[in-house]
Amino acid sequence: MNTDPIADYLTRIRNANSAGHKVVVIPSSNVKKEMTKILFDQGYILSYKFEEDSVQGTIKIALKYDSFTKDPVIKKLDRISKPGLRKYSRSENLPRVLNGLGIAIVSTSKGLMTGKKAKQSNIGGEILCYVH
Description:
Elements: H1 5-19, E1 23-27, H2 30-41, E2 45-51, E3 58-63, E4 77-79, E5 88-89, E6 103-108, E7 111-114, H3 115-120, E8 125-131
Antiparallel strand pairs: 1-3, 2-3, 4-8, 5-8, 6-7, 6-8
């Protein structure tokens, strides 16, 4: 049993990126699906596909690499709020990641969204991770 499925999700993407894989397969959950949609909308991944083949289902993510240098687009994935120490923030205190070059994924009462969108909507929440 996995105690922190979000950390597992981030680690699988991080490991596939560093190994140079084109596709990574991750066990599915609603939070992971929403995080995948955010990563796609922000341009960090090439594409994704939700497959309902087993009881849990899987997410297939096509990773994105720079066309010239072959470096991964996702440079760093940092888990912020952990099961042992949750990190919450009010809307006015939501952080800017790398001075606006990265994103923070925030779990709010209106669902998962980027830190920038949460700040515009004036909603605070739990800071799940930083992507840059």
